[in-house]
Every structure is written in structure tokens, then in C-alpha cells.
Amino acid sequence: MRNKLPIYLPSHYSLRLIPLILLTLSIILNITLSSKIERLHSVISSLKNESRLKVNTVVPPIIAEDIDGHPVLISYGDFSVPTILYVFSPSCPWCRRNVKNIKYIASQLHEQYHFVGLSLSKNDLKSYAKEFQYTFPLYCEPSGETKLAFKIGGTPQTVVISAQGIVLRNWLGAYDGSIRKEIEAYFGVQLPGLQNGSW
Fold first, then answer.
1. Where along the chain do its domains lie?
2. Torsion angle of alpha carbons 108, 110, 114, 117, nearest 10°?
3. CATH architecture group of domain 62-187
4. Residue 101: left if φ>0, alpha if ψ -120 to 50, beta else—which one?
5. Strands 167-172 and 62-66: what pairing?
6. What is the Cα–Cα distance from 117 to 84, expressed in whole angstroms?
7. Tens digit of each residue's pLDDT (9 = 90 or more) over 16-32
8. How far is C-alpha 133 from the geometric centre of its chain's CA atoms?
9. Which of 16, 34, 113, 175 is deepest in the core (most CB within 10 A)?
10. Which residues is 85 bridged to in the sheet?
11. With pLDDT > 90 as the criterion, what percentage of the chain qualifies?
12. H or E stretch including 114?
């Protein structure tokens, strides 16, 4: 007959240690995960900055189409003042909410800057232009080279370009929060704010 192994039951003291050990492991795991998340946020932030158009970058002329579909080449040296390139899309709700702001800037600064509107799509552009009555020319269908040079992604995007083709400022997003403050300070204007709407 085989000898039975003795069964050891944990004492009350051992049972009290288990929650403490689990709590300690949980804290260590949370600290480790928190550190990894912080590193990921840092990497994402760095990648976003790298993917944005930087000030002092030299950009080529804009290759696009006019509102009727004819090819155009927009050179900054053709104007004696800097160019403000406003990139938008007719289907973008934030672009629609931002219309009052960009039109206000154009009305206040049309003598100091040359304004160019660039739609990423020609779909509904004519009806969009008619609805919002822009006071500056609108173009569409930027070439791949233009999109790459300006690192165009989201809309709206506002780029100030010198007559020599040097980027002076670049803002990505509607004119709200910190972007609004920066734009108001840079141009010395008081913006009307974002328009409400159900687009």
C-alpha cells in the first residue's frame, strides 16, 4: 500500500498574503502599461509632427484644375504679396463651419495677401461655390505632386506662402481653440467663429 502524500492547507496568515501579492502585481503591471502607453503617445506625436508641412519649407507651384476643369499652374512669384492657400472639401462639415472665418480673413486682408481656395474634390464644387460665394478663386483636383509637397491630408488646411514659395505658416483644422487664437494673433483680426450647422 502506497503512502499518501500529506495535504497542506494554507494557514490564515497565508490566505491574507494572497490579496496583497495580487495587489502588488496589479500595481506593477499598471505602471508598466502606463509607461508603454506614454512611449506610444510620444511616438505618435513625433510621427504627426513629421507628417506636417513645416515652416521654411520651399514648396513648388500648385498644379490643379480651375472650377471648369481646365489645368492651371499657380506660381507664388506672380504676386507681389504672400499667398494664403486654403485647402478644403465641399463634403467636409468642418470646412462648412469654417466658411465665415476664411471669408472674413479674405475680406480684411485681400490687399496684403493673395487668396487661393483648393478643393480636394470637384464633386459638388460649383454648387458649393454658389452657396458660399467665395470672393477668391477656387481650384480643385490638386496633382499628386501638389498633395505630396503640401502634405495634404485632413481639411481644412491653411498655408501662408511667400512670393518665393517658402512656407511662412501652416494650420491644420478649423479655426477653433488654439488654432483660432494663433490665426487671430498672426493676422491681427478678430474671427467671427465657427458656424453652426447640420451638415
1. 12-51, 62-187
2. 60
3. 3-Layer(aba) Sandwich (3.40)
4. alpha
5. unpaired
6. 8
7. 777 778 888 888 888 88
8. 25
9. 175
10. 116, 159
11. 68
12. strand 114-119
CB 139 within 8 A of CB 66: yes
Beta bridge partners, 171, equal 158
Grid cell, residue 77, equals 512669384
- 161 three-class SS: strand
> What are the grid coordinates assigned to 45, written together?
506625436
Q: With beta carbons less than 8 A apart as the criterion, state whether 171 and 179 touch.
A: yes
Q: Could you check whether the bond before residue 156 is cis, i.e. omega within 30 degrees of 0?
A: yes
CB neighbour list of residue 117: distance below 8 Å, 6 or more residues apart: 86, 88, 134, 136, 137, 138, 139
Q: In what order do the strands lie in the sheet with 71-74?
A: 71-74, 62-66, 138-140, 114-119, 83-88, 157-161, 167-172
Q: What is the pTM of this model?
A: 0.74
